[in-house]
Amino acid sequence: MHSKILGAFLVVGLLAACSSSKTDTSTATSGSAAMSTRDPFASGAADKIFFDFDQAVIRDDARSTLDTQADWLTRNKAVSVQIAGDCDERGTEEYNIALGNRRAYAAESYLAAKGVASNRMSTISYGKDRPLAPGSTEEAWAQNRNAITSVR
């Protein structure tokens, strides 16, 4: 009789151990998978580059940001991004849409040259319709002349 009770406790104990061990492992696995694909650009620290007035040329100060993006995208090959080109409020809507397209394409081309597959990137231009900084000052305009990369 004692052996049956002892056997039952042993089976229950083993099932409990297997169950909690399995749960812990799957939680740890899914947690690290989530960490490897977390959007590094969401914080705003490495998601945008800036351009000079009326230019779509990648500036020297933007290269390190794009290099960081390229490194992360190289390690996370399942992730796709969208690059949005933006302009300040000066100029016509049509001109700024075209300039925003050139800015987004410049960032995309840089990332492609660093090894990011083109089929993982898309571009869009918002022209002057999505300012980051309000106002009509050089400081506001400088913030609004950008390309912003976001995970899709």
Question: How do you describe this structure in short?
Answer:
With 152 residues, this protein is α+β, with helices and mostly antiparallel strands. It has four helices and four strands; from the N terminus they run H-E-H-E-H-E-H-E. It starts with a helix and ends with a strand.
Number of helices: 4
Radius of gyration: 25 Å
- How many extended strands? 4
Proportion of strand residues = 5-15%
Strand adjacency order, main sheet: 1-4-2-3
Q: So, the CATH homologous superfamily of the largest domain? A: OmpA-like domain
Order of helices and strands: HEHEHEHE
Shape: globular
Helix content: 40-55%
Derived from helix and strand composition plus strand pairing, the structural class reads alpha+beta
From the N-terminal CA to the C-terminal CA, the straight-line distance is 62 Å
Largest sheet: 4 strands, mixed
Please give the CATH class of the largest domain: Alpha Beta
The total number of structural domains is 2
CATH topology of the largest domain: 60s Ribosomal Protein L30, Chain: A
Question: Please, could you describe this protein's structure?
Answer:
This protein starts with a helix and ends with a strand. It contains four helices and four strands; from the N terminus they run αβαβαβαβ. It has helices at residues 2-37, 60-75, 93-113, 138-144; strands at 48-50, 81-86, 121-127, 146-151. α2 packs across α3. With 152 residues, it is of the alpha+beta class. It has two domains: 1-37; 42-151, OmpA-like domain (60s Ribosomal Protein L30, Chain: A, 2-Layer Sandwich). β2, α3 and β3 (121-127) form a beta-alpha-beta unit. Mean pLDDT is 81; it is low at 2-36. A four-stranded mixed beta sheet has the order 1-4-2-3.
